[in-house]
Specification:
The chain contains 13 helices and 13 strands. The protein is an alpha/beta fold. Strand 8 and strand 9 form a beta hairpin. Bound molecules: 5-hydroxymethyl-3,4-dihydroxypiperidine.
Length: about 425
């Protein structure tokens, strides 16, 4: 697919490349409901007692996917990203569930009948409980298990998937589970984190090879990548040597190391952009201190994350060094103020237009998320959705104004 950059007109509403993909994203545990055989579900039963929200029925997308996809189609979406719940496909080691296979085939066929390009994630933060009990990605065998599952998915769903994302945000996943200790398995151990990263990298590489071995037939080449979550960063003291050294190391570890560990096994880059980090001060005694965006009077989302669309351009520019097609596989804002979401989408897409104008190979934008969803340790309170979910009224769906504004931008294609 060759894409020419269009002249930047400072107006995100016109001149988009013809084959640019537009859509939204989600993940199984966050929307499907009753993902009872995964480690998050089991962990939620324990932390529920500590007052944390549980995913429960989520948005009931498992049964209501048809309704959700129809709404996306009406909004002009041409692509959709979802994840397959590994624990549904393989609830017990080596035993694959045909009902789950049939379900996901129906889901993917529905997307095809809506004319949508599909992005499928194989692991989006959850693991089958049996694998977590064996150490999850701490265990060396995890790459073997993941590849066996990837192979199975390639055989069962290969005809219905356009883009494969082996892993979602491996660095965030490892950090939250093994350094911050906020997600299962709630550990705080840097050595284990590094081990998890190594095993995830091996899992990706082996799954990459397996997907290609099965799917590259008759002139078709599978498209396989990772959805990575790079940050844009800013030095508040650009003159300070130590701060610069820290920033370079941090940038490498946070944004690039994953590509270094999996070199040659990406057909495209999946980019989830959310974070802008202000490096306030670095000292030998206190380490790095990051500035609170509120303290700097910056605009923030309901989660307190800085709203910084310009960082999307910066991240795209930086990652263009890999000379691969780039798809924004997530970008979104948690806000109950839908005007803020509309503004966020316009400004973010302006940055994407800017990147195209600068000649970068960006081929699609998937807003996070199609509907409101379960937001991990924050429960159901953050509202990311283009479509609102009324959790008190039968999970009724309401298309937000911002969704229509997004639709208006994507319509006129040249
Ligand atoms: O909801 C998450 C998603 O699961 C992964 N990327 C970031 C989103 C917002 O936090």
């Amino acid at each position: 697919m060759s894409q020419k950059s269009e002249k930047f007109k400072n107006d995100p509403q016109s001149g988009w490349p013809k084959h640019f993909l537009w859509g939204a994203a989600s993940s199984a545990h966050q929307v499907e409901g009753h993902t009872v055989d995964n480690d998050w579900w089991q962990w939620e039963q324990e932390v529920g007692a500590r007052g944390r929200a549980q995913a429960n029925l989520a948005t009931d997308h498992y049964r209501r996917y048809g309704e959700d996809f129809q709404l996306a189609k009406k909004l002009g979406h041409t692509a959709h990203r979802l994840s397959i719940e590994w624990s549904r496909i393989e609830p017990k080691p080596g035993s694959f569930n045909l009902d789950a296979v049939k379900h996901y085939r129906r889901v993917l066929t529905t997307l095809a009948s809506c004319g949508m390009t599909t992005f499928v994630t194989l692991q989006h933060f959850t693991l089958p409980a049996w694998l977590a009990a064996r150490g999850g990605f701490e265990a060396k065998e995890s790459a073997y298990y993941f590849t066996r599952y990837a192979r199975y998915c390639a055989e069962e769903f290969g005809d219905l998937v356009d883009f494969w994302l082996t892993l979602n945000e491996p660095v965030i996943y490892g950090w939250m589970g093994w350094v911050n200790g906020v997600w299962p398995p709630e550990k705080k151990n840097m050595l284990l984190f590094l081990r998890v990263m190594r095993h995830m990298a091996r899992a990706h590489e082996q799954a990459y090879a397996a997907l290609h071995a099965i799917l590259d037939t008759g002139g078709h080449t599978a498209q396989v990548g990772v959805a990575h979550n790079p940050v844009s960063w800013y030095l508040e003291r650009p003159h300070a040597l130590l701060d610069n050294v820290f920033a370079q190391v941090y940038d490498w570890l946070r944004n690039h190391r994953i590509y270094g560990m999996t070199r040659g096994t990406h057909d495209f880059l999946g980019i989830n952009y959310y974070f802008h980090e202000r490096i306030k001060k670095v000292s030998l005694w206190r380490g790095a201190v990051f500035a609170d965006p509120k303290e700097r009077l910056r605009e923030t989302s309901d989660l307190g994350w800085e709203v910084y669309p310009a960082g999307l351009y910066d991240v795209l520019t930086d990652l263009s060094r890999y000379r691969l097609p780039m798809y924004i596989t997530e970008n979104g804002i948690a806000t109950r103020n839908d005007a803020q979401r509309e503004d966020f989408i316009r400004r973010s897409l302006r940055e994407v237009r800017h990147a195209l104008d600068a000649g970068l190979d960006v081929r699609g934008y998937l807003y996070w998320s199609l509907t409101d969803a379960y937001e991990w340790e924050h429960g159901f309170s953050p509202r990311f959705g283009l479509i609102g979910i009324d959790y008190d009224k039968g999970l009724a769906r309401t298309v937000r104004r911002s969704a229509k504004a997004y639709a208006d931008i994507m319509q006129p294609q040249t």
